[in-house]
Predict the 3D structure of the following.
Amino acid sequence: MENQEIAFGRHPSAQLNSLFLNKPFQGQAPENARIVFLSSDANYSPQISEHDFFKYILEYQEDGVRFWKKYNVHHPFLLDAYPFDKTKNGRPFHNNFRKLELDSGYAEFVSFIELLDIPTIGNKSSNRAEFFQLVSKLHLKYLDDLIQSDGCKMFLIPGGVLNDMLRLKDEYGVFQWLNIDHRARNIVSHVASNKIMKTYHFSAWQIHGQIPEIKRLIDNWLDC
């Protein structure tokens, strides 16, 4: 099944869904973070909860900051013990993110969160209708409040995610601050004391040319 194309949707693992019910984010809690990477969905191998490797996912979701400092990787997908296809299911995202060369000293500042508050399988682009069916208005409101809070955070958001947010803005009445030209290559916007930056997706090849800029932006933001 690992090498077959699977339909996009909610992950079948009740245990993994339960983890996200309690903590729909990875790494530092978004409220306590200074750098927030906002993506569309947290994608996993369908079999991950059936494998012994799942113990690392449990440990990570329990305390992502402690995990980073203990293993010196920001996500369990980067452990040598990772047993699944390294070309899919969220692994390319985290492998490219590693190229920012953020050591564990950044752990307390960095959070990962998504537009969906559930774990997923498959490729979102294969069934965008299902993606929008899985959206939680309560979670969108949480994200909107987080971005509008006076938290001195920098949100790094891929262009495709900004497009989705524009659609959700019209459908759910959230993200009313989002009135920037999302077609521009670079977007710099401010909401309260927070900064919004448009990036390429970390699973896209284009991100490699943007990595030095993102690293510089992160360091400059944490220094201010």
In short: The domain at 10-223 is CATH 3.40.470 (Uracil-DNA Glycosylase, subunit E). The beta strands are 9-10, 25-27, 35-39, 42-43, 110-114, 119-121, 154-158, 188-191, 194-199. The chain has a mean pLDDT of 92. Helices lie at 14-22, 54-62, 64-71, 91-97, 128-133, 137-148, 159-172, 207-223.
